[in-house]
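Possible regression after last week's pipeline update?

I re-ran a chain I had predicted before the update to compare outputs. Posting the input and the new output here so someone can diff against the archived version. Not blocking, just want to make sure nothing changed silently.
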Amino acid sequence: MISPMSQGLFHKAILCSGAATSPNLIKEDYSEVFKLLMEAFGIKETDPSAIAAKLKSISAEEIREKTKHLDIMQDFFVSVDGQFLKTLPSKPNFAPEFLAPVPILLGCTSSEGAGVLKDAVPVAFPSAYSEEEWSDEAKRVLSTFKPSLDGKELENLVETINALYAKSFPGEDAYNPQRKISAFVADPDFVLPMIEQATLHAERGHASFLYQMRQKLKCFHDDEYAIETRKKDDYCECDHCDCLLFTFGIPLANGKKRKQCKFTGEEEKLARIWMTYLSNFATYGNPNKGEPVAMQWPQYDVKSRRHLVVRVPLAEGDHLVHDRYKWWRSFNEDFGN
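New output (post-update):
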C-alpha cells in the first residue's frame, strides 16, 4: 500500500486487523537489533552479501533457538531503505503519491488485544486481572512508546487513560480491568492504525470502507458448541482473527475446523453476508455493488467517519473509539499526519 515499487501491481486492497500506518511495524533504525542478532549467530562479517549468505545457511530450528531469549518481538525488519520505502508512513512528510490510489476495505475486531495478550504472556495476563495489574501493564505499554517517561509522568498518564478507557467500559464488571488493558494494547497496534489509514485514504479522495466486527462466536464461549475448541474468557467479544472464520466461510464448510466446533444459524448467516461484501468489493471496488447485500455499507469520510458494525443484526456506527483515537494522536506523534 505504501511502496512506490508496488504501484500498479494491484487494483484493490482488503486489510483485516493490520495497517501500514502502525508505528510498531516499520522503523528507520534497526542497528541495535541487528547487532544483537549478529552476536547471537556469531557472525563477524561486515559485507552485506557475506552476512546474507551466512544467514541463509542457518536452519529455522537454529534461528528459533538462538533468538528466543531476545526481546525483539516488535521488530519486524521492515525498514526505510529509500527504495521499497521512502519514508515512515506516520511522518508529516508522508506524501500522497506514497499511498496506492486504489479502493480499500479495512477494519478490526472489537477485542483485538484479548486473545493476543493471553497467548503472548499467559502468566502476566490471567483471567482475574486487578486494577493494580492494569495500571502496571499500562505503564509498560506507555514506556515502549516513550522510554524517557519518569515515574510521576507515568502515574499521571495512567490516571488519564484509566478515566478515558473507563468510558468505553462503564460499570463495576469484574472483567473491566481485562477489557481496559486489552483495548489499550490493541489500540496502537490494530485499531488506531486502521482508522488512520482509512482517514489518509479518504483525504486523498480514494474509496475507503471501514468496519468493526463484533460477533461473539459461540464455539469460543459455550460448551455446547466448543467440541475441540479452547474457550475464551467472557470479556473477549470478537478476538483478533475471529473474522477469518467468516471470511473463509468456515461456518458453512465441512472441513477440519467445522468438526472442531459447531456454529449457530446466525453465524452461518453472517458468513454469507460477510463473504458477499468481500466478493463484491474484490470484483467492483465497492462492497455494495454486485450481489444484493443485507445493508448498505457506508463509505468512510473524514467528516462523518461512518463504519459498518459487523454482527447480527448489522448496524452503522460512526467515530469509532474517537476519544481514544484523539488521545493517542496527542500522546504519540507517530499517529496522525
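Follow-up from reviewer: compared with the archived run. The chain has a mean pLDDT of 85. Marking as no regression found.
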